[in-house]
Amino acid sequence: WSPAEPPSADRVAQALHDTFGFSAFRGVQDRVVDRVLHGRSTLAVMPTGAGKSLTYQLPAVLLPGTCVVVSPLIALMHDQLRSATANGIRAATLTSADDNRAETMAALRAGELDLLYVAPERASQPYFRDLLSQARIALFAIDEAHCVSEWGHDFRPDYRLLRPLLDTFPQVPRLALTATADHHTRADILAQLGIDEDGLIVAGFDRPNIRYAIRPRDNALRQLKTLLEENPGPGIIYAPTRARVEQLAESLARATGRRVLPYHAGLAQEVRARNQTAFVASEDMVMVATVAFGMGIDKPDVRFVAHAGVPKSIEGYYQETGRAGRDGDPSVAVMFWGADDFARARMRLSEIEPHRQASERTRLDALAALVETGECRRAVLLRHFGEDPPAACGNCDNCLEPVGLIAVTDLARKLLSAVYRTGQSFGLGHLEKVLAGVSDDRVLQRGHDQLSVFGILTEDEKPLLKPLARALQARGSLVPTEHGGLALGGDARAILKGETEVTIAVPPKRDPRGRKGRGT
Ligand code: ADP
Ligand code: ZN
Q1: Residue owning the nearest CA to atom 18 of ligand 1
Q2: Best substitution site from 18, 29, 45, 53 to test ligand 1's pocket, by max atoms within 8 Å of Cβ?
Q3: What is the DSSP string of 424-492?
Q4: Which residue has the higher pLDDT, 302 or 204?
Q5: Given this model, what pLDDT does residue 181 score?
Q6: Which atom number of ligand 1 is nearest to the Cα of residue 25?
């Protein structure tokens, strides 16, 4: 193929219209397509829904030869195949699930395919390399390219095997695509796939019509019920486990009278399909789901996304909340978080491979910072994705109701030293009694009334103890023990020595339901 003669702008516009039915490019699509048509390797970082598929499907149609698309999931490939074929694009998948492989290979050799979807493990097999050398290859598109990086949230060793294949065809441009990349991951993708730094194109991540709110969870059912009452449109509630999904779906249906259905990987295929179809068609349904729900679902009018527990990472949070308001109309994203979510996540850290723990811990810390911040949520979110947003957005909980920041370093030192002096094995309830000077049986039996921390809590400090403990657990200064107690962790020693300040964000005392604002 000849990079000297890319198709004219007219031809590009024509194909965009005729094949895809679009009148214009969106966002950075034109920049990405233009680079690819000029034969230049590119990493496009575009949020979910920004239209990544078009950036390789359009060149696939315009360029002579076949575009080979590497994609991590067979289900995803088949979705893509269906929509490409519906647009009249000559496409095929080459996976273990296809029984027409011989036919597909013949079509590839004969130059009759615009698009060929393959899994990364196939791309690394020698026979596949031979197959490609018998065909004309126009472009390598690497979807979900963050899978190549150990910094990414979804590392797949198979992606590392792609490089030799790409290097076998040095004249073929590479287009790496991902929705999720902090700057570490980005740099790593460029290096791993051999793409120049100037090939990086990043789309704006802001979703201005989504209103973000993040609140401590006190009574999830009551909080979600209120949310459903305030938001009559269709919505998704993400819950951490299958059991929790089913339980919430049932209780919420009962409590609100709304149509609430569950979705998780443990349900029978036909139940899942039925619930999904019902949701996509509905104007008021609520789907309670695990993160298994959402990929490849095209429903533009989702009015709210709620998290009943913390997501896995900021990337996950962005992706899941990003399913709200694709139509551009006002939508809300509300997260209800608990200290125990972070406690569990930090426990799990010790179970993963040692060399991945540092990046996972960084990921968790970033999430804790988003949850704990008194700053604009959108600003924190966008900065995470490498943007330089205004300090306030006017459309998140912290902008709409500025929180008070309280310096609680002294109180933090009292709590941490109580943890230390009682042997790092008691829960918050017991610690609170010791600090408040309550001499019940357990306190007396252990001799904790004799400790220097006994009864040192002031009246003013009492209501701050729980939010503080929550904040310390989120940031890892307090970590759970196996038996439900609390131990020192992270920067606890620095706090005790007075080397680190601790502040917590306390919401304004306001509540439509007449309860104390704090904690809702
Ligand atoms: P991503 O893979 O980035 O999540 P998709 O490629 O699935 O996004 O595209 C998301 C939606 O946007 C699809 O419904 C697609 O048809 C639509 N879309 C993509 N590009 C355009 C465009 N230029 N104009 C209008 N709609 C578009
Ligand atoms: Zn804001």
Answers
A1: 51
A2: 53
A3: S---HHHHHHHHHT---HHHHHHTGGGSTTTT---TTTGGGHHHHHHHHHHHTSEEE-TTS-EEE-TTH
A4: 302
A5: 67
A6: 23
CA atoms within a 13 Å half-sphere pointing along the CA-CB vector of 203? 25
Choose from 11-25, 251-265, 310-324 the range with maximum mean pLDDT. Answer: 251-265
* pLDDT 10s digits, 38-76: 999 999 999 877 899 999 999 999 999 999 999 998 888
Region label for 344, one of left (φ > 0), alpha (ψ between -120 and 50) or beta (otherwise): alpha
Q: Quick one: which of 74, 67, 71, 70 has its CA closest to 39?
A: 67
Give residue 350's pLDDT band: very low, low, confident or very high (50, 70, 90): confident
Tell me which amino acid residue 307 is: H
How big is the chain by its Cα radius of gyration, in Å? 26
Name residues whose C-beta falls within 8 Å of residue 207's C-beta, 6 or more positions apart in sequence.
47, 321, 322, 324, 325
Task: Verify whether ligand 1 is closer than 6 Å to residue 47 (CB atom).
Answer: no
Q: How far is the CA of 55 from the centre of ligand 1 (A)?
A: 10
CA–centroid distance, 357 to ligand 2, in Å, is 31
pLDDT at 4 over 70: no
How far does residue 326's CA lie from ligand 1's centre (Å)? 10
CB 484 within 8 A of CB 490: no
**134 close to 168: Cβ distance less than 8 angstroms:** no
Q: Which of the pair, 164 or 184, is modelled with greater confidence? A: 164
| Closest atom of ligand 1 relative to the 22 alpha carbon | 24
In short, whether 51's Cβ falls inside 6 Å of ligand 1 is: yes
How many CA atoms does the CB half-sphere of 323 hold within 13 Å? 27
| Residue 181 DSSP code | -
Ligand 1: which of 12, 20, 71 to mutate, judged by most atoms within 8 Å of the beta carbon? 20
Between 122 and 166, whose confidence is greater?
A: 166
Which residue has the CA at smallest separation from atom 25 of ligand 1?
22
